[in-house]
Every structure is written in structure tokens, then in C-alpha cells.
Amino acid sequence: MPASQPEEILLIEDNSCDAEMTVWALEKNQLSRGLHRVKDGAEALSFLFPQGGPGSAGGLKAVLLDIKLPLVDGIEVLKRMKSDPELKLVPVIILTSSSEPKDREVCYSLGVNSYVVKPLEFEEFVSTVGLLARYWLKVNCSRG
Amino acid sequence: MPRKSVDPVSGRAKASGQPASKGPRDSRISVLLVDDRAEDLMVLEAILGDLDVHLVKASSGEEALRCLLDRDFSAILLDVHLPGMNGFETAELIRKRERSRATPIIFLTGEESSPVSLQHAYAVGAADFIMKPISAEAIRSKVSVFVELARAMREVRIQAEQLRRMEDRQHRRLLEQVTEQRNRIFALSPDLICIAGFDGNILEGNPRWEGTLGWTPARVTGRPFLEFVHPDDRPSTKEALERLKKEPGAVSFESRFRRAGGDYVWLAWTGTPYPSERLIYAVARDVSESKRAAVEALRLNTDLERRVSERTAQLESANKELESFSYSVSHDLRAPLRAIEGFTRRLVDRHASGLDAEGKRLTEVVLTNTRRMAQLIDDLLAFSRMGRAELIRTRVDMRALAGSVSDELRAANPGRKLDFRIGELAPAWGDQALLRQVLANLFSNAVKYTRPRECAEIEFSSRQDKGETVWSVRDNGVGFEEAFASKLFGVFQRLHSSEEFEGTGVGLALVQRVILRHGGRVWAEGKTGTGAVFHFSLPTEGQGHAGKPA
Prior knowledge:
The complex is a heterodimer. Chain A contains five helices and five strands. By secondary structure, chain A is α/β, with parallel strands linked by helices. Chain A has a five-stranded parallel sheet, sandwiched between helices. The radius of gyration of chain A is 14 Å and the shape is globular. The two termini of chain A are 16 Å apart. Residues 1-7 of chain A have low confidence and may be disordered. Chain B is an alpha/beta fold. Chain B has 13 helices and 17 strands. In chain B, helix 9 packs antiparallel against helix 10 (357-388) and helix 11 (398-412) packs across helix 12. The longest helix of chain B is centred in the middle third of the chain and has 63 residues, at 288-350. Chain B is rod-shaped and about 190 Å long. Chains A and B meet through helix 1 and helix 5 of A and helix 9 and helix 10 of B.
């Protein structure tokens, strides 16, 4: 993938260490240039729904979403995105520490595109993020 | 009981010494003979002399009437032709007297019987008519008919009198007997007995009142029943008494009764109404003891229920806490661990030039321990989830399951020589996924602890026992000290150092938890150096208990 075409990726993550490691992982996969990070669900919603209006995808190609977030949690953000005609086309990848089956069920029932339990080992995390981001960016590209 | 000696026949006190067969003169049947001619009277006396009757003679109507004032006669022979008052006139007067109204009169006449005189005779009440000259046979037979009739009637009257007196005596005796028996029961009853009027007043109480309540029967007689009832129990008691008056049949009720000492006892009453007498008969028993026991039992029961529900609530809240703890562990504990790993890795990757050999070794130790910690968290979570997951029981082919698990272990340990010996195995009745976990843990344990052996021998067998099936995994590994057998199944319990054999100490705890939830048992045998045997049992299909969270 040419480096001259930065992808728009939204990272919604409250933990700054996790956020930093995600940036490193994207960097290692040469995907970090179009990255925008928000720290909680409320911030995410105001980014996705400018002035509280209908959702605007802009050039967004993928959303990396944590479940446990301050103010508005990831499930709510996912719900809002998947019920918006424009935003529901943007792939959402859950990146979480929770391996609870219940969380997984809820997310898939809401139409999440991928549910990934963050691997503990950094190397594995790097390759997982790379694979996922590339896959979903490619799917979106092929859709047009 | 002493009684005056009474003649059963006459009813009079025995005074005369005369033989009973003849009886006193006065008691003989009397016949009145009325004729103005002395010779006729003599003839009549002679004819009737052997009839054993008392013959009274009169020579005129007036004399005859005088005789009738003295006594009663069973028959009167009356001459029609009498000087002065004739026979018919005499008969009319006789008939007028109440006492002699029914006395049979036989007229004697010398005249040819004219229809007029016959009619006259019958009109004044003649029983018969005899023509003179007197025929002895006719007179005797006619008079004796009336005498016999009188005798028979007197006999009947005497017998009736006798019978009445006997019945009277019997009745009195029976009454005395019944009264005596009733009094005995009244006195001896261990229960309180009360006779009360429909007005609610006590008419009679038995001596037990004094024994149970301290009130003498005399003290309660005439008092309102409700006066002794505890104020709180008065409405219900009153209602029961009202019911007694309205409904036929017994009514039972319980109420507290005041004792002479001022305290109360619980009495269980059963009352029965007798509406025709407007009486209530009631019997009561002191039930204070059983009442106290019942109250105590109720209190204990309530207490127990309260404690059970408290305990349940505690357990539920503990369960909730455990769930949120598991969730926290999965999320919150992993995040910092991931950061330690990630940042340490970054340090090694990007800043290796600033680290000497010791620095690099230290970062390796950090990374190793991070991985170990992550494993602990994962195992602990799996263990916690196991207790919550619902059991889905099916018939499980243990041979197939053991085959699949051992294949996986062979694939995961390519450098090892593993000899799995899996014979004919009884099927199990349980949750396939959980039982797979059990076999995986036991088999991998066996693989792990046989590592020092050149060839690991792992044998899996089963046998039937009373109502359960026992499966055993035997290995030729390093074994363990028998004394610690019971410690094997605790969470994080390890009998070997993690340097010697890796692991978190959750595997066997998980095995135990799964088996216990199936209603089975786990136990182990072993000796240091000679291998170990792990047994687990499961109830045979149909005997399984409902799975309980362990």
C-alpha cells in the first residue's frame, strides 16, 4: 500500500498506553498517517456526529473502538454508528481486553465488523492490528 | 339402698299374718245379696258359699245402699220386689253413684218376665236377669262369671301396679347409676369440663378447673365464660360461642384462660350445643406447652428462613462481586500488563543500544513474568467461568473424546514419546465441552509430569461402581507425596516449583470443579517417583443430580 495515500482511521481509546501501543503498531504497518485519536465515547460521538446532526463518515475508512470508555461506553458508540445510514458502512473493529462471551455477543449483535481481544504480547498485537487494518481498509477500497 | 318393706300386691305395709292365698278378708271379692225374704237370702248364701267370695246380705234397698257406702262389690244380686224402694229404684240410685256405676247388677224376680219389666231392668243397668224359683246352677254360673271377671281385673290391676312400682324403682336406680357415673367422669376427667347456658354463663365446672386454673367449680358457677378469657382472645372466643348456638355439631377453638394466680394458660376447647336445653357442653385441655413449642418452632423457623435468605442474599452478592471481579480481572488487570509487555518490548526494540547484557537479561525476566501473569489471569478467569456456565448434559463417548485429546497432545509435543493406552471406556452422562477440558487437563498433567521418563505411559480406564462410573488416568511420571494428595485440587496449589514443571496450579482445581458440578468426585493416588493415578467419578445416567454452581 503506497505511503502517499494516508488512510483515515479513528482510534477511540482512553488508556494512553494502549493508545500509544496502537500507534506504534500502526506505524510498524505504515498505517498511522491518517490516524485520529479520541479519549472517550463522548468525544467520539462529537467527532462522528458534527453539531449533533446526522453522522458524517468523511474520509473515514475504519474505526478502532475500545468497549470500556469513560462518559459514553464503546457499546453505545457502536450502537449509534450502526443505526446511522452513513456511518454504518464504516467498519468498526473492537479492540478490547475483555474476553467475556457476553461482550462479544452484544457487539456482534450490534453489527460490529471484528471483535479482537488485545493480545498480551506486543509483537502479536502489532501483527494483529496490521492484518485487521489492512483487511478492512482493503474491503472498503474495493467497495469503492 | 335401704327401703321400707312394702307388699307388692296391696301396696300397703304388711301387717296381717293371714296366708297370702286367702288374703285378708277385706281383700276378697265381695258380692251383695239383696232380698227382703230371709229364706231366699239363705238359699243364695248356700248356693254361692263355695265361690270363695265375701257375701254381704241386705234385706232392703236402703240397707243395700248403706252397704255400698262401706265397700265396693264385684256383683249385686238384687230382688226386684222389695218393700219400700223396689229393685229398679235401688238400681237407679246405685248407678248414680260414681263408684258403683259399673258394678254388674243381676235382678231376681219371681214374675213372669214381661217385656216391660225386662226393658226397665236393662234400662237401669241390669247385667242379667234371673227368674225365681232360683236355679242354683244358673245363679252360680252367672255370679261366678262376674266374680271371675272381677278377680281377673283385680289381678291385672295389681300386676300393673306392681309393674309400675318395679319400673319406678328401676328408673330411679338407673338414674342414680347414671348420675353417679356422670359425676365420676366429671370428677376424674383430666380435661376441664364446662356446662354453660346459651346466655354464656357457666352452670357447672368439674374439679379439674381447680387443678388447672385454680378456680373452684363453685367460684366459676354462674360467672360469664368470657370473664376468664384473655382480653385479646375474647372476640374470637365470642365468635366461637355464637357459632355454637347457630350450628349443630361441635366447634373447636383455642383461647387463653386466666388462672387464679393472674397468669394465663392456653386451653383448647371443643364445645357441643344442645339447643333444646339451651346448653353448651364443652371440654378443654391445657395446650400451653405445645402452644409454646409451636411458637418456638415458628420463631426458629422464621429465624432460619431469615438466616437462609440473608445467606442467599450474601451468596448472590458474593456471586455478583465475583462476576464483576472476573470482569475487572479480564479488563483492568490485563491492560497494565499489556503496557508492561509492550513498553518493555519497545525498550528492547528501540533502545537496545543503551542496554548492556545485564539490562537485556532483566528485560527478559520482566517479559517472562508478564507472560506468566497473563497465563494466571486467563486460567483464573476460565476457572471462574466454569462455575457459572450452564451444564448441557448429553451422552459422551469417552473413548472418542480421549482419542481426540491425546492426538492433540501428541501433536503439541512432537519431541516426546507418548504411549496413550486407552481401552474400552464407559460412556459418560455430562457436558461434552467441560468433560473434554477435564481430560485435556488430566492428560496434559500426565504428559508434563512424565517428562523425565524416556517413554510416557498414560493409561485411561473406567469401571462401574454402585450407581456411578469411575474413570482413572494413570501415568509413570514423577508422582507426588501421598500426604499432599488432598492439596492437589486447590486453586494455585502446586507440589512442584514452576521452574521444575510449568503451570499455574489451576488445572486440577478446574477438573475438580467440573466433576463436582456434575455430582461426581475426584481423588488421586500417588507415590514419589512411581507415578500418579487420578480418579474421577460421575453418576450413571438417570442418577445424576442437577448441576450446582460449585
